[in-house]
């Protein structure tokens, strides 16, 4: 083994770090009038990183930094998705941030550092790397929520998020230390080998597993570790909610797949049952509570909770098919979340947040095109064909069914039926009610085009789902054993 | 992409392209643009289909490949693919040829209609859907084509959507077809459940091993799996191919413009069921019970729908009932395992029935949209081309040699005679009697329309003139195969091994016997001219000549004497009344009951308001969990960990 590690597998992360630092420094010398430069530099940073990632894809996983870091197809696919999501977040959020005096260097550099954290998390092959990525992401997110320092609502949300996040990190670390105590290693493959050998005491392994699952569940926002989600979604500025609700979910699923699917695979029988419990309560609580909401951001927060329950259906199958289905689900969910928050950002303007459900009354009369986009996003979230959300649900349900959880699939379908109600209510408000507000809808041309593409993609991938499905199948097969 | 693949793709996609152009940009490209785009598309498809057919028959070309995987989840693969064999090639040529004729005809027939571009867009779209249906190599794509042609049929029956009758008719067609499609979908579901695949080749291969399988649908009763699957699939065919008792939509579909009556409701779409059963011959050959069901339903349709043709005065309805009856003949052929004969009759029928419909359309066009034959008569002088082509069509329909219908219909009768299937005696009687009645009503129509006194009003007579060339050219072009396709086709299609492995014939299929019995076309023709069906047809013609040319007072006298039977026929055996009273009425009573008891009391009162109250209470409770206090949130998390730990430590 050479003393100098192989840096090539982490080229994208290294590039991103260098460019973010550069953006941070350049931004110090830009006055507020020319802040657009920071926006373009940040977009450039993201797109350059994407180029590096797609430039070369290994067919087999490559390990580096003493096996702490892995570069595989699944990782690359997820990283590209995260980066593209971040790029869309910048585009959608820019005008909103500008109108609220948030368009500062911090907005961009915090999101970019969070992105770096996600990329590290996705590529982690070691408990420490996982934790490093997680904290880098989380710390940036806490600060982002508190970006509007003067808003009491935002600072309260940030405070809650921070304390609960610290608690979750503590749980996670405690679980990791138990597993470390049992197996004597922090490396995912070695942990798996140690657990598979049967030398580890079952109580130690069980305690460790429970704490790790709790930490993971917090990250994804699964009941009963979901309490932060509604408050943070509502409290954070919408542009930040857009970010928190999209890209980190992809990283969260990668976290699950790496941790449970690779490191703790020998304990699959135990964590499958834990996830069954968590999935059922998440889908139930998310869907039922969402019905009672009058605030669209809170409604989407509860909808997220139920969607994460569906993602767990794929993961708990503990098969390659299941992991592929879960990653497919989370990508489509991200697409839908971007669309929903995108419409919300488009409708909002200085002094008006467009976050109440009643703000969507009669949208069809005000702007039929974006009402249609919102309609597509809503039917996709409800899982109605021919939208991509239908195929996402179909694939996780199929994976759970093939893994033998027939009753769970029935429960999930029934709960998604309940969930359809509140998505359809948005459509009803948009199409059947009279508008209360008739002010014109703004938005830059690029945002309008991007949002249209976003909404139509929900439909397009619903009619032709196979390319995406194949992509994730391929990535999972090449990356996981 | 290989040249073959491109050629095959061209066949369905060229009409689709034309349809999109005419449909989406109809206003921009204008009327001429719309008909040019669609006609070019369909003509391209015909050309490509002819090339492919030539490859199939001259070089033994076969093709079975998936072109695109639409979806694969787990082990389930949903593909788009083509299967090209003699059966497909025959259907492709028939569909594209008749479609092209109808396209050309439409230029003349619809030239005053404001929905000109929309009409062209629909019929080109139909051609695409029908081609996808016949070229499919799997059940899913078959179902796609099946539903797509149904959709276009719905759109076209209601083409004149301001007429209440047209809207009623298209709703009726749609609803009746839903009944059939429900069975069809269940059949496809059974196929998928028991074979794990939707691909024809895989399913047919797998089916061989399922011959003895039983399935229990109602506890205590086991049925043969193949019988259940075949009957379910056939229910689909009954809807689309209008077999009793799902035939009620077809006569009403005549509310649509005449060109689509010819294309969709006579020549192509309604034969989709016949095609589907032939395609599924490996499955149907495994269940004699299912074939007997097919046989009896087909025979009943063939005979009883022919009776209805006798009393109609609407020229299109006569042709519509003759279509129903002829579809019954095809179904009879399927029922006795004579699949090649069914396809043969399908092809000849497509030509002569399209000819008769378009001829009727030409008459209607000349008569300024008058359809009642009591107001026609003596049109022979005014519409000579239409008259002579209608004579060809009627002779073909009546089954007079050497016209096309003679060969295909006589073969069906011979096949039924040679068959030993349960119900074949009844079927033989039905098809024999049907010959006489068919000949009678087809010439009744010819005589009432073209011969005798001119019964139209003065104004109409002044304006009578032969239709323009775009209408008469398709008539002439369709008259040629109506005359020749039987003579030319009988040798290869039935006596030769034309279909090869595309159609599976069981050991007791009468087709094998027919092949032994007849030495050639001439032998068959000469025998046919001395056999009973020929004399039945001749006497049918003679009787109608006597009644409608020599003694026009006779029909009225019969009508007065036979009041009961006439009323029965006039009410179409009360099928519509039955459906209205039992199904529609029953559904209303049931719906009303369900609405009061089920909806208002249980669902609204209990489930909706109850569950809404429950959800509201639940949501209220959960909301109380969401206190906003940090320590409550932290407690919730700790509680979660504690609960999980308790469960797992107890288990360990």
Top keywords for this entry?
heterodimer; A: 481 residues; two-stranded antiparallel ribbon; globular; B: 652 residues; mainly alpha
Tell me briefly what this model is:
The complex is a heterodimer of chains A (481) and B (652). By secondary structure, chain A is mainly α.
Can you tell me about this structure?
The complex is a heterodimer of chains A (481) and B (652). With 481 residues, chain A is mainly alpha-helical. Chain B is globular, with a radius of gyration of 28 Å. Helices cover 75% and strands 4% of the residues of chain B. The mean pLDDT of chain B is 82. In chain B, β3 and β4 form a beta hairpin. The N and C termini of chain B lie far apart (60 Å). Chains A and B meet through α6, α8, α9, α12 and α17 of A and β1, α26 and α27 of B.
In terms of structural class, how would the helical and strand content of chain A be classed? mainly alpha
Largest sheet of chain B: 2 strands, antiparallel
What integer is the average pLDDT of chain B? 82
- Assign a percent range to the helix content of chain A: over 70%
Please report the distance between the alpha carbons of the first and last residues of chain B.
60 Å
Largest protein-protein interface: A-B, 46 and 33 residues
Number of helical segments with 4 or more residues of chain B: 27
Can you tell me the residue ranges of chain B where pLDDT is under 50 for at least 5 consecutive residues?
A: none
Let me know the number of strands of chain A: 2
Arithmetic mean pLDDT of chain A: 91
SSE diagram, text form:
The complex is a heterodimer of chains A (about 475) and B (about 650).
Chain A: H1 11-28, H2 36-55, E1 62-64, E2 69-71, H3 73-99, H4 105-123, H5 127-145, H6 152-183, H7 188-196, H8 202-220, H9 228-235, H10 238-244, H11 247-263, H12 268-291, H13 296-316, H14 320-347, H15 363-366, H16 368-382, H17 388-402, H18 406-432, H19 445-463, H20 466-479
Antiparallel strand pairs in A: 1-2
Helix pairs in contact in A: 1-2, 1-4, 2-3, 2-4, 3-4, 3-10, 3-11, 3-14, 3-20, 4-5, 4-11, 5-6, 6-7, 6-8, 6-9, 7-11, 8-12, 9-10, 9-13, 10-14, 11-14, 12-13, 12-18, 13-14, 13-17, 13-18, 14-16, 14-17, 14-19, 14-20, 16-18, 16-19, 17-18, 17-19
Chain B: H1 3-24, H2 26-59, E1 63-73, E2 76-84, H3 86-109, H4 116-135, H5 139-157, H6 164-195, H7 200-207, E3 214-218, E4 221-224, H8 225-240, H9 249-252, H10 258-267, H11 272-279, H12 281-284, H13 288-310, H14 315-335, H15 339-366, H16 384-398, H17 404-418, H18 424-450, H19 458-462, H20 469-495, H21 510-517, H22 521-528, H23 532-550, H24 554-561, H25 563-570, H26 575-625, H27 630-651
Antiparallel strand pairs in B: 1-2, 3-4
Helix pairs in contact in B: 1-2, 1-4, 2-3, 2-4, 3-4, 3-10, 3-15, 3-20, 4-5, 5-6, 6-8, 8-11, 8-13, 10-15, 11-15, 13-14, 13-18, 14-15, 14-17, 14-18, 15-16, 15-17, 15-20, 16-18, 16-20, 17-18, 17-20, 17-21, 18-23
């Amino acid at each position: 083994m050479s003393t100098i590690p192989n840096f090539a597998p982490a080229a994208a992360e290294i590039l991103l770090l260098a460019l973010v630092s550069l953006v941070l420094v350049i931004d110090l010398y830009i006055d507020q009038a020319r802040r657009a430069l920071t926006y373009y530099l940040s977009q450039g940073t993201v797109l350059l990183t994407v180029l590096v990632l797609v430039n070369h894809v290994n067919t087999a996983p490559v390990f580096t930094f003493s096996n702490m870091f892995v570069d595989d197809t699944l990782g690359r696919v997820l990283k590209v998705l995260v980066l593209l999501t971040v790029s869309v977040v910048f585009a959608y959020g820019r005008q909103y941030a500008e109108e609220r005096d948030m368009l500062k260097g911090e907005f961009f550099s915090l999101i970019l550092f969070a992105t770096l954290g996600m990329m590290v998390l996705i590529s982690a092959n070691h408990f420490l790397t996982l934790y490093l990525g997680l904290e880098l992401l989380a710390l940036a997110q806490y600060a982002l929520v508190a970006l509007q320092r003067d808003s009491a609502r935002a600072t309260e949300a940030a405070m809650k998020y921070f304390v609960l996040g610290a608690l979750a990190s503590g749980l996670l670390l405690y679980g990791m230390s138990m597993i470390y105590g049992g197996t004597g290693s922090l490396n995912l493959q070695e942990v798996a080998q140690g657990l598979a050998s049967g030398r580890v005491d079952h109580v130690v392994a069980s305690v460790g597993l429970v704490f790790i699952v709790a930490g993971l569940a917090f990250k994804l926002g699964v009941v009963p570790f979901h309490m932060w989600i509604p408050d943070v979604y509502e409290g954070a500025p919408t542009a930040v909610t857009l970010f928190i609700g999209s890209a980190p979910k992809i990283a969260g699923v990668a976290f699950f797949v790496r941790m449970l699917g690779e490191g703790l695979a020998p304990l699959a029988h135990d964590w499958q049952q834990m996830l069954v419990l968590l999935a059922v309560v998440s889908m139930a609580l998310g869907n039922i509570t969402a019905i009672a909401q009058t605030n669209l951001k809170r409604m989407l927060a509860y909808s997220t909770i139920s969607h994460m329950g569906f993602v767990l259906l794929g993961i708990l199958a503990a098969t390659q098919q299941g992991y592929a289905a879960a990653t497919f689900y989370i990508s489509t969910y991200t697409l839908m979340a971007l669309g929903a928050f995108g419409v919300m950002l488009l409708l909002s303007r200085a002094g008006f947040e467009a976050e109440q459900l009643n703000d969507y009354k009669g949208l069809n009369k005000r702007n039929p095109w974006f009402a249609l986009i919102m309609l597509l996003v809503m039917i996709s979230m409800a899982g109605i064909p021919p939208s991509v959300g239908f195929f996402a649900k179909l694939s996780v349900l199929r994976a759970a069914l093939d893994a033998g959880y027939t009753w769970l699939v029935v429960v999930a379908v029934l709960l998604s039926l309940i969930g359809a109600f509140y998505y359809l209510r948005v459509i009803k408000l948009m199409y059947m009610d009279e508008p209360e507000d008739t002010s014109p809808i703004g938005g830059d041309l690029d945002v309008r085009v991007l949002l249209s593409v976003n909404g139509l993609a929900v439909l397009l991938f619903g009619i032709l789902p196979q390319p995406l499905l194949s992509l994730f199948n391929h990535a999972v097969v090449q990356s996981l054993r | 992409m290989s040249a073959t693949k491109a050629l095959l793709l061209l066949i369905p996609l060229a009409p689709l392209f034309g349809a999109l152009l005419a449909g989406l940009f109809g206003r921009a490209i204008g009327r001429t643009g719309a008909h040019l785009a669609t006609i070019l598309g369909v003509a391209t498809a015909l050309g490509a289909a002819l090339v492919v057919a030539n490859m199939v028959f001259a070089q033994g070309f076969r093709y079975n490949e998936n072109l695109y995987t639409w979806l694969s989840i787990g082990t389930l693969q949903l593909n788009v693919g083509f299967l090209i064999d003699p059966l497909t090639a025959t259907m492709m040529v028939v569909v594209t040829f008749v479609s092209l004729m109808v396209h050309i005809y439409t230029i003349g027939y619809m030239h005053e209609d404001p929905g000109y571009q929309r009409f062209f867009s629909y019929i080109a779209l139909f051609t695409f859907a029908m081609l996808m249906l016949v070229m499919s190599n799997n059940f899913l794509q078959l179902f796609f084509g099946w539903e797509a042609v149904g959709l276009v049929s719905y759109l076209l029956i209601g083409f004149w959507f301001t007429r209440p009758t047209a809207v009623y008719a298209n709703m009726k067609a749609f609803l009746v077809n839903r009944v059939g499609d429900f069975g069809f979908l269940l059949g496809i579901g059974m196929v998928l459940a028991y074979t794990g695949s939707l691909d024809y080749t895989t399913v047919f291969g797998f089916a061989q091993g399922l011959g003895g399988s039983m399935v229990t649908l109602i506890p205590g009763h086991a049925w043969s799996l193949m019988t259940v699957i075949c009957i379910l699939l056939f229910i689909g065919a009954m809807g689309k191919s209008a077999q009793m008792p799902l035939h009620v939509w077809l006569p009403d579909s005549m509310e649509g413009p005449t060109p689509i009556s010819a294309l969709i409701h006579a020549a192509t779409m309604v034969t989709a069921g016949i095609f589907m059963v032939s395609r599924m011959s490996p499955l149907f050959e495994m269940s004699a019970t299912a074939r007997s069901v097919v046989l009896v339903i087909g025979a009943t349709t063939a005979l009883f729908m022919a009776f209805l043709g006798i009393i109609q005065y609407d020229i299109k309805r006569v042709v519509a009932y003759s279509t129903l009856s002829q579809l019954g003949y095809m179904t009879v052929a399927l029922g006795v395992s004579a699949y090649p004969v069914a396809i043969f009759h399908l092809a000849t029928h497509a030509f002569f029935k399209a000819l008769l419909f378009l001829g009727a359309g030409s008459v209607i066009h000349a008569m300024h949209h008058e359809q009642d034959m009591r107001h026609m008569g003596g049109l022979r002088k005014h519409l000579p081309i239409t008259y002579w082509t209608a004579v060809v069509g009627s002779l073909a329909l009546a089954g007079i040699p050497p016209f096309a219908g003679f060969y295909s219909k006589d073969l069906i009768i011979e096949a039924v005679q040679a068959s030993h299937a349960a119900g074949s005696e009844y079927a033989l009687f039905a098809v024999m009697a049907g010959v006489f009645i068919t000949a009678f009503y087809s010439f009744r129509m010819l005589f009432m329309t073209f011969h005798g006194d001119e019964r139209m009003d003065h104004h109409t007579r002044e304006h009578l003139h032969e239709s323009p060339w775009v209408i008469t050219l398709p008539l002439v072009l369709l008259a040629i195969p109506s005359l020749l396709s039987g003579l030319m086709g009988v040798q290869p299609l039935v006596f030769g091994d034309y279909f090869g492995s595309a159609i599976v014939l069981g050991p007791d299929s009468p087709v094998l016997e027919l092949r032994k019995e007849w030495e050639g076309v001439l032998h068959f023709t000469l025998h046919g001219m001395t056999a009973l069906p020929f004399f039945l047809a001749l006497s049918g013609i003679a009787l109608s000549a006597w009644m409608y040319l020599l003694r026009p007072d006779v029909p009225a006298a019969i009508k007065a004497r036979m009041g009961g039977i006439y009323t029965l026929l006039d009410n179409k055996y009360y099928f519509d009344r039955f459906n209205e009273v039992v199904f529609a009425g029953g559904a209303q009573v049931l719906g009303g009951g369900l609405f009061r008891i089920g909806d208002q009391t249980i669902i609204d009162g209990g489930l909706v308001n109850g569950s809404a109250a429950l959800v509201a209470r639940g949501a209220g409770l959960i909301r109380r969990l969401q206190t906003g206090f940090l320590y409550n949130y932290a407690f919730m998390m700790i509680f979660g960990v504690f609960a999980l730990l308790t469960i797992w430590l107890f288990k360990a």
